[in-house]
Amino acid sequence: MFKRTIAVAMSVVGLIVGAGFSSGQEVLQYFVAFGKMGIWGAVIVAVLMSAAGMIVLQLGSYFQADEHAGVLRTIGTKTVSWILDIGIVFTLFSVGFVMLAGGGSNLNQQFGIPSWVGSAILLVLVLAAGMLDADRVSTVIGAITPFIVVALVGAAIWAYTHTDGSLSSLEPLTQNVDTNLPNWWISALNYAGLVLMVNVAMAIVIGGSHLYPREAGLGGLVGGIIFGVLLIISTLSLFLKIKTVQGSDLPMLTLVDHIHPALGVIMSLIIYGMIFNTCLGLFYSLGRRLTARHPEKFRIVFTVVTVIGFAVSFFGFKTLLSSVYPIMGYVGFVLIALLFIAWFRGRTAMHDEGGRRQEARELAERKLDPNVRFTSKQARRLRHLIGDSNLDDDELRKLIRDDVTSYTKTDEAPEPEEIDEPDAKDSAGEGTSAGGDTGSGSTVSSTPVK
């Protein structure tokens, strides 16, 4: 469980820390621009995103979602869910082309490469990775994350030991940072809404690729905490080096360049990787949503919308970020409220379902172990658990069978429909095993939640 939780957390961080955050541009506009109070704004966002990460991934896992619309329909009225769906689709595309523009700006600032070339390289990488399934996309996103964590922490340590002055003396300079937000607390709430709007679709898909809500939720919580810590230390870093980074399209890259040019090259590549992460997550989840009724057309639609995003990206990274992002953040207010309410109302059902799936997995593991007897009583218990699940019976049988076989490496796995059948040698209704009558000490509610 620990390994899978950490894998989920790294995927969440990799998804959230995109072009705007890793480059420092979001941090500058949303937090540093408001001086000392902006630091408190970063703290508020850290708390909100830790909770939101847990909630979104738990919901995705509970519904085994492969796109976000189905989850939205359960948390609000038909009209509200439709409006949010349209808002998220618009956000996915809008921020997607902002990411493509960010890739071009990154390589242009560091290597002098024309912006369109950097964006074109990113386009090819995203199109190639987008051909993978959701689980592999999640793995790709998570694999790059540790590098940005190390880079941001390293840059923060240097900034804290080489400040441009005290916070009080530097505060007047922060007023020169361009921002479209009126004050620090609106900015903080707007940013939390923005982050959720941008990432909720792919986060739901990541949650849906994990069978156990508790595991997915814990990964989302840990990922949100890591993101929150990175946000706070990045805000302090850029605040303390405001003289150095003010006016830069990519302030964090400028900061690292001042440490050493070689580190700037490395940081540029890391930021490019994080831009790739977010861009991939956005266009992948957009493609999944647009082809929800025709999944066989996913690759074609994914390719078309990504290429269109590339064409729009020529408007420029900084301009797009400052004009598009605040609008998304305000819509995100509503989404945050609905998600928190939905989780609060459904937390008992999700807890029970998590226990139900875990117990079903333990029983299925006995079924697949040739050295352990799987009795009629255990088979009945497994059928009972599957019947009480919110998922379709056949779907859950297949998910459990696949989950067990992926870890046990069993060569002779039964068909999904046979997963809850007793061993042939066991007498109908009478067999018991030395390990107990269910093979599990779990106790879960048998109340249907369909």
- Give the helix level as a range of percent: over 70%
Number of strands: 0
Distance between the termini: 26 Å
Order of SSEs, N→C? HHHHHHHHHHHHHHHHHH
What share of residues are in beta strands? under 5%
Cα-based radius of gyration, to the nearest Å: 24 Å
What's the pLDDT, averaged over the residues? 85
The description of the largest β-sheet is: none
Indicate the overall shape.
elongated
DSSP summary: helix tally: 18
What are the low-pLDDT stretches, counting only 5+ consecutive residues below 50? 427-450
What structural class should be given to the helix and strand makeup? Answer: mainly alpha
Transmembrane segments: 38-59, 80-101, 113-132, 139-160, 184-206, 218-242, 262-286, 298-317, 323-344
Biased composition (Low complexity): 440-450
Protein name: Membrane protein YkvI
InterPro entries: YkvI-like
Describe this structure in words.
This is Membrane protein YkvI. Mean pLDDT is 85; it is low at 427-450. The longest helix is centred in the C-terminal third of the chain and has 52 residues, at 317-368. This protein is elongated. It has 450 residues and is mostly helical. It is built from 18 helices and no strands. α6 packs across α16, α8 packs across α13 and α16 (317-368) packs across α18. The protein has helices spanning 2-16, 19-23, 25-30, 35-63, 69-75, 78-111, 115-129, 134-161, 167-174, 184-208, 213-240, 242-245, 251-259, 261-290, 298-312, 317-368, 376-388, 393-408.
How is this fold's topology laid out?
Layout: H1 2-16, H2 19-23, H3 25-30, H4 35-63, H5 69-75, H6 78-111, H7 115-129, H8 134-161, H9 167-174, H10 184-208, H11 213-240, H12 242-245, H13 251-259, H14 261-290, H15 298-312, H16 317-368, H17 376-388, H18 393-408
Helix pairs in contact: 1-8, 1-10, 1-11, 4-10, 4-11, 4-16, 5-6, 6-7, 6-10, 6-14, 6-15, 6-16, 7-14, 7-15, 8-11, 8-13, 8-14, 10-14, 10-16, 13-14, 14-15, 16-17, 16-18
Protein name: Membrane protein YkvI
Transmembrane segments: 38-59, 80-101, 113-132, 139-160, 184-206, 218-242, 262-286, 298-317, 323-344
Region (Disordered): 405-450
